């Protein structure tokens, strides 16, 4: 489940990078969500410098870090003329501050690394909101953008299956990650419904006005 | 010693 989840995550990021690079445009893409995702990786993968889990773990962490910052570069620098800032207006400070406060209050251990890891977990659960908000504001999304969102939504959904499996088999559970992962996946439900009923039938993703 | 909560997931 975890491997599928990570692959779904990688596919989402590659779809987004290819969409922007091929169409040389980031229309319909929320730069704010990408900033939040880069922050999530930067604060979660600090342990790259200290602990080694596995080759796979290290490779994936570096890949997520480099691709998320590359996406930001494309949006805010290379193709900034196509960045639709009038529709990307979600106030991300309302996501950042509460996540930070919550991470300081509810965590496994009050150390810098652990609080930052917890912050990244809470922030990731709401990081897609600016993008979903932007899609609702523009009222539609290009089909490639909806495939990106579908893959991204599946990633943490698959992680939930992984957590169930690990709880049953290893009696392992991390409530912070599980609760945040459920919140994160639930946020996509509305989109999943539209994706399955519309995009898979070849229609454009049109949100009811 | 307190088991350092190592996060083995991405």
Automatic annotation (TrEMBL), chain A:
Annotated Pfam families: ER_lumen_recept (PF00810)
Membrane spanning stretches: 62-79, 91-110, 116-135, 147-165, 177-196
Any one GO MF annotation of this record: ER retention sequence binding
Record's keyword annotation contains Ribonucleoprotein: no
Keywords: Endoplasmic reticulum, ER-Golgi transport, Membrane, Protein transport, Receptor, Transmembrane, Transmembrane helix, Transport
Name under which the protein is recorded: ER lumen protein-retaining receptor
GO biological process: protein retention in ER lumen; protein transport; vesicle-mediated transport
Location of this chain's protein in the cell: Endoplasmic reticulum membrane
UniProt topology in membrane: Multi-pass membrane protein
Family per similarity comment: Belongs to the ERD2 family.
Keyword Transmembrane listed: yes
PANTHER family according to UniProt: ER LUMEN PROTEIN RETAINING RECEPTOR
GO cellular component: endoplasmic reticulum membrane
């Amino acid at each position: 489940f975890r491997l599928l989840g990570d692959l779904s995550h990688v596919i989402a990021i590659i779809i987004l990078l290819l969409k922007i690079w091929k169409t040389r445009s980031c229309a319909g893409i929320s730069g704010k969500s990408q900033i939040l995702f880069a922050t999530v990786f930067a604060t979660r993968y600090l342990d790259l410098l200290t602990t080694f889990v596995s080759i796979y773990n290290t490779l994936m962490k570096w890949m997520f870090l480099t691709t998320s910052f590359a996406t930001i570069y494309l949006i805010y620098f290379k193709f900034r003329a196509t960045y639709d800032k009038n529709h990307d207006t979600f106030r991300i400070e309302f996501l950042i501050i509460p996540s930070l406060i919550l991470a300081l209050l509810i965590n496994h251990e009050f150390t810098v690394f652990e609080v930052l890891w917890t912050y990244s977990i809470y922030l990731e659960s709401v990081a897609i909101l600016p993008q979903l908000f932007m899609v609702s504001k523009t009222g539609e999304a290009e089909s490639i953008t909806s495939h990106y969102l579908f893959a991204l939504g599946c990633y943490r959904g698959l992680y939930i299956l992984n957590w169930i499996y690990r709880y049953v088999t290893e009696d392992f559970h991390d409530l912070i990650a599980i609760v945040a992962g459920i919140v994160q996946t639930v946020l996509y439900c509305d989109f999943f419904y539209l994706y399955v009923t519309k995009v898979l039938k070849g229609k454009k993703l049109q949100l009811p006005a | 010693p307190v088991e350092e909560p190592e996060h083995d997931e991405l």
